[in-house]
Design brief:
174 residues, single chain, binds guanosine-5'-diphosphate, six-stranded mixed beta sheet, binds magnesium ion
Length: 174
């Protein structure tokens, strides 16, 4: 198996769902409350995945993305995280249109995706049930994780690593 593989991951979802908080939680195991929602950031992170050193490039997309920018980010990415907020039904409703746009930009066979329902710590304000998340993930044929960037509950680490594994598997058979 190739060493020092690179995997490009782009994170999408409505503004405020916790994309930046999730990425920073994954990278630092910490929660930082506020980010500039208009900031787009790319991080490079080395991880040991199944005895291989993998360099992950993670693009944390920003709120005011126009269609052209979004298209560019989708073309760039190999693995995608679509995030919604379990306390914001509207953010859940935006998942399917995002996936459809992704399929338009890339051939569906080039789309490796995971679905993340964030803010699982806010159970009292929940608007989207776990079952609805699971059902949507089945429709999208992707893995589903419910988690909290705030408390660290759920498998944020595993989600990113599993996405990397899937992208690498796909690249190996193509
Ligand atoms: P982005 O626009 O998708 O990048 O969202 P941010 O990461 O900037 O987060 C938006 C707001 O939600 C911030 O005030 C965060 O502190 C908050 N937030 C993010 N993740 C969580 C979470 O898991 N639980 C809670 N309670 N708040 C969160
Ligand atoms: Mg952000």
């Amino acid at each position: 198996m190739a060493k020092c593989a690179e995997v490009k991951i782009a994170v999408f979802g409505r503004a405020g769902v916790g994309k930046s908080a999730l990425v920073v939680r994954f990278l630092t195991k910490r929660f930082i409350w506020e980010y500039d929602p208009t900031l787009e950031s790319t991080y490079r992170h080395q991880a040991n995945i199944d005895d291989d050193v993998v360099t992950m490039e993670i693009l944390d997309t920003a709120g005011p993305e126009d269609l052209l920018q979004r298209e560019g980010h989708m073309r760039w990415g190999e693995g995608f995280v679509i995030v919604y907020d379990i306390t914001d039904r509207g953010s859940f409703d935006e998942v399917m249109p995002l996936k459809n746009f992704l399929d338009e930009i890339k051939k569906p066979k080039n789309v490796t995706l995971i679905l993340v329902g964030n803010k699982a710590d806010l159970e009292h304000a929940r608007q989207v049930s776990t079952e609805e998340g699971e059902k949507l993930a089945t429709e999208l044929a992707c893995a589903f994780y419910e988690c909290s960037a705030c408390t660290g509950e759920g498998s944020i680490h595993e989600a990113f690593h599993e996405l990397c594994r899937e992208v690498r598997r796909r690249k190996m058979v193509q």
